[in-house]
Amino acid sequence: MVRTIQLGMGWFPEQSGGLNRYYFELIKCLPGFGFEISGLIAGNKQADFESGGQVHSFALAQAPLLRRLFKAGRSLQAQLSEFKPDLLVSHFALYAAPVLLQKPDNLPWAHHFHGPWALEGSAEGSSKIFTLMKQFLENRVYRHPDIFIVLSSAFRDLLHQEFNVPFERIQVIPGGVDVNRFVPNPSQEEARGFFKLPNDRPVILAVRRLARRMGLENLLVSFDQVRKRFPDALLVVAGKGPLQTCMVKIVEDLQLKEHVQLLGYVDDDFLPLLYRTADVTIVPSITLEGFGLIAVEALACGVPVLVTPVGGLPEIVNNLDSGLVLGGNEVDDLSVGMLEFLKNRNFFPSGAECRTFVEQNFEWSMVVGKIASAYRTIL
Predict the structure, then answer these.
(1) pTM, rounded to two decimals
(2) Cα separations (Å) of 92 from 11, 23, 89, 166, 201?
(3) CA 239, CA 35: separation in Å to the nearest integer?
(4) How many other C-beta atoms can be found within 10 angstroms of the C-beta atom of residue 370?
């Protein structure tokens, strides 16, 4: 067994988000590939209980920043001494900072690059001073790992260009999905009944955090064009975030109340069921989309997905059907793509084709096997 410390960010589902879900699934599967794990995250005691003692919380996620960093450093120091790892793995630049002071020189270090922390904050309106502070920290951290694992070629290139990480230290391993949980059942009718959605209307679904870089404002405006051609079409948006008030106003201003449903946050337990309500899903991201786990989840549930040509999104669907990649991320690009699907849905991949594609390319244990092999290259 290879003993590894896994420095995460938060614990899923206590804290949502792609990074936390990835970490959660990785922790579950790695022992099957010969790894003994001691994990550290910021959160409550839920992680300790649900992981069977594998993952420990060093501080509450809501604790002041300096307290979290201090506690992360103390916990890492204790784990290095008591657990005596063969490998150190980090997932978030902030909580990887204590590694710079405490890691023994001969301890291999792998870092999962889930996205550029500073640039993502800037895209959401973070102040210039905070952006510069994040960039400084990222630059310091990313000088040192022996290997980086990224979710797409797009983020491999970004990591190289923004942080001067040599290509030979970067491995591209796409994310994965639990194909036993995200399945093409129950029927669409049953799923819509649960969410009280009509059975006689085509449903386009977007599952996104309500944040600016997700492109949801463009999506709402574009749907105003769609409903004029297909008055029975229904757009369903699930998620929470800082744009909620803005989105409600757009719906009111464009008189879309009969054509758009904002579901708010949908618990992770019900996500597979939610995907089954849709005729098609859409990911309208406008920037910094490293992978797009929701696209793979929808496909696993037998639902085709339209994606913008942003970041790693095209890499998910190109080998299934390049026609699923929209012409751009602007309003007209989104409306053209949705209209094309509504007019010619029989030309898009079937539910069975979507499901088979995921089973062959994104099944989670297959992905973790590749990650385990990448780790072993630096041992």
Answers:
(1) 0.94
(2) 13, 11, 10, 19, 42
(3) 34
(4) 16
